[in-house]
Amino acid sequence: xxxxxxxxxxxxxxxxxxxxxxxxxxxxxxxxxxxxxxxxxxxxxxxxxxxxxxxxxxxxxxxxxxxxxxxxxxxxxxxxxxxxxxxxxxxxxxxxxxxxxxxxxxxxxxxxxxxxxxxxxxxxxxxxxxxxxxxxxxxxxxxxxxxxxxxxxxxxxxxxxxxxxxxxxxxxxxxxxxxxxxxxxxxx
Length: 188
Fold this sequence. Notes:
Layout: E1 3-5, H1 6-11, H2 18-26, E2 30-34, E3 37-40, H3 49-56, E4 61-62, H4 64-70, E5 81-85, E6 90-94, E7 97-103, E8 112-115, E9 124-127, H5 129-140, H6 147-151, H7 157-162, H8 165-172, H9 178-187
Parallel strand pairs: 5-7
Antiparallel strand pairs: 1-3, 2-3, 4-5, 6-7, 8-9
Helix pairs in contact: 4-5
């Protein structure tokens, strides 16, 4: 596996000690992604930030700015990998990037699909475009007061029109937020 832990090595019968992994990090053979999680330096070219993110903190799925950019809903390039999780909010920094995980209620942890690019052995979870939009609105509701604020989001209207409106309405119900409903009306 391109991403592994000490436990993974034990499962395949390799006897490796934590000090050896630290030594290999110091010698630049390995990259430490977080405490206890590593990748070989030679694997860096093959790894996507979405894959790394998924293995850093589970359960989680790619959403918010990263997913909106992926679907072309926002024009900005997104360099940090943003995800949502029912666990506590966390940020991981390593030499491969910044990985941000925002807490969402367990009942709002849905609307994602498994992605596997080019027969990769490391799948990850990505929000559907409708859910990514709702997640983004949910986390930015305090800043969204009127039509001008909604326009400043710079959501791509062409792609927005192609989204499944019935799925948006269905997915918005568990949020139980009247402000979100108002913002959705302005947006759609």
